[in-house]
Amino acid sequence: MDRTVIAYVIYLVVSIGLTIWVARTLSRNGRIFLADVLHGNEKLADAVNHLLVVGFYLVNLGFVALYLSGDDTITDTRGIFEALSTKLGVVLLVLGVMHLANVYVLNKIRRRGVMEREQVPPVAPQGWVGAQGA
Asked: Could you read off the pLDDT of 87-117 as tens digits, one per residue?
């Protein structure tokens, strides 16, 4: 088997595995943030969480596919390691940036929800106060 093909197979297996692992981690822990932001609406939190995970998969797997092709033919074992280290390093950086972006967005949504809850008066108004001294 051609060494370039071996490098491609290893790259795809590792990249897809890492993408799935990060997406599951985001899904599991991001749901907690979403449930808090959405005031305990579990169905809506699950739906938004699922949509975010699908978007994460599409962006990352699309990048992995686009970044698959190489410039040179790999001629030796050292070349396999060099090509894999470059490709997997870039994929890891993209996954890290996507992860941080998701955490940032979830945190912004959560903060907005907390601020909205703080604007609601703790006790409902009970009536009008008449004018003083009239």
From this structure: 889 888 988 888 788 778 877 877 776 676 6
Instruction: Return d(Cα 129, Cα 36) in angstroms, integer.
Output: 36
pTM over 0.85: no
Q: Is the pLDDT of residue 40 over 70?
A: yes
Q: Which two tokens stand for residue 34?
A: 């979403």
**Residue 126 C-beta-side C-alpha neighbours within 13 Å:** 2
* CB distance 102 to 56 below 8 Å: yes
**C-alpha span between 105 and 41 (Å, rounded):** 19
**Enclosing H/E stretch for 94:** helix 77-118
Backbone angles phi and psi of 67, in degrees to 5: -85, 0
Q: Which residue has the tokens 């940036």?
A: 97
Maximum Cα interatomic distance, the chain, rounded to a whole number of Å? 97
The tokens for 84 are 């894999």
Residue pair 12/84 in contact by the 8 Å Cβ criterion: no
In this structure, the number of other CB atoms found within 10 A of the CB of residue 30 comes to 22
Mean pLDDT of 57-70: 86
- Give residue for tokens 């699309």: 62
